[in-house]
Amino acid sequence: MRHEISPLRQETGPESILQVGLGFMASKALLTAVELDLFSELAKGPRAGADLAGALGLHPRGAADFLDALVALGFLERSGGEYRNSPSADTFLDRGKDTYAGGVLEMANSRLYPFWGSLTEALRTGHPQNEHKHGGDVFDAIYRDEEGLERFLHGMTGLSMGKALVIAERFPWADYRTVLDVGGAVGCVPVAVARRHPHMSGGVFELPRVRPVFEKYVASFGLEDRLTFHGGDFFTDDLPGADVIVLGQILHGWGLQEKRLLLKKAYDALPDGGAVLVYDAIIDDDRRENTFGLLASLNMLIETRSGFEYTAADGHAWMAETGFRDSRIEPLTGGYSMLVGIK
Predict the structure, then answer these.
(1) What is the arithmetic mean of pLDDT over 170-175?
(2) Is 154 tagged catalytic?
(3) CB 303 within 8 A of CB 115
(4) Which of 40, 213, 251, 324 is the most core-located residue (most Cβ within 10 A)?
């Protein structure tokens, strides 16, 4: 039997399919480089390949291929046999800089990467594939010790860093005086806002065990007098009042009932004219374009019991149901958007 090759296949070939299907190779190369702290090492200055491999404890057999793969991927540069960080890697992957965004990659390497190996099971069962799968609790596993807690919180900071800088720049903060980031980890967003706008004050509302990490982070920017910690559980406790309440990467972790409850709590804590600022990997209404948002929703399938990403239309509808008189959507970075509701 003769198989015909379709014109589409002749024209495009399988390269785009293979690029996605084998994309885990590039992903793991980057995650491993972060795990080895390669970029922080190169932030000290250019290094010859053998010297760098020795400092990282790499076997000679794979070291050159590993380093040159990172060159080809755009994370390193090589000249005259010496390696250096690319500009973006130097800014965002050097642990010594306050712009470090590698925390989320550390978390992806230690947790998400192995859990995604069970995506098929998640799709067939609808059940999480993380610690819940074996009767554990994800937060107990993450918060088991101070080191694990800091790693997770700084991972969330890495995920939020770029968005925080955009939010601090684009949102009309001149119209407000106080901001409260609910579930705000170490305070990445309030810190970015306070640094950009000297008139702003506020803080975060988080589980009490987060306080020491928050205070250490805020103190590193000298903002202790303007940003404070509020301990509590956002499902069982009322939220402190503020002119702007931020729900960043919070709604996506919960089911519809919890999403509506959190928006109602934010509404009740706001003054008239106050704003709620929600940011997640919000999916485009036609569900065709925001690839990251759709994959992030699958990550919620793997990581949570009922969480999911949602469309802008969904968000507008929930805002209206809650009582917000107006809402708008604005793009941020990397597949994220912010949904702003005005009371």
Answers:
(1) 97
(2) no
(3) yes
(4) 251
What is the rounded radius of gyration, in angstroms, for the C-alpha atoms of the chain? Answer: 22
Which pLDDT band, with edges at 50, 70 and 90, does 2 fall under? very low
- pLDDT at site 79: 95
The answer to whether the 7-92 and 162-342 domains have the same CATH topology is: no
Alpha carbon separation from 266 to 240, 247, 323, 324 (Å, rounded): 9, 9, 11, 10
> What amino acid is encoded at 185 in this protein?
A
Closest CA to 224 of 249, 197, 201, 245: 201
State both tokens at 251: 């709604």
Active-site option among 154, 230, 252, 316:
252
CA distances from 304 to 114, 185, 343 (A): 15, 18, 30
Residue 265 and residue 99: Cα distance in Å, rounded? 32
Query: Could you tell me which residues are beta bridge partners of residue 77?
Result: 84
CA-angle at 258, arms to 252 and 261, nearest 5°: 120
Is 3.40.50.150 the CATH number for 162-342?
yes
Do 320 and 267 meet the contact criterion of CB atoms below 8 Å apart? Answer: no
**Tokens encoding 147:** 């080191």
In the chain, alpha helices (H): 7-12, 15-21, 23-35, 38-42, 49-56, 60-72, 87-92, 103-107, 113-115, 119-125, 138-142, 146-170, 188-196, 211-219, 256-269, 291-303, 312-322
User: In the chain, what are the domain boundaries?
Assistant: 7-92, 162-342
Using a 10 angstrom Cβ sphere, with 0-12 exposed, 13-18 middle and 19 or more buried, the burial of residue 128 is buried
Residue of 249 and 135 predicted with greater confidence: 249
Closest CA to 168 of 189, 146, 198: 189
Which CATH number is associated with domain 7-92? 1.10.10.10
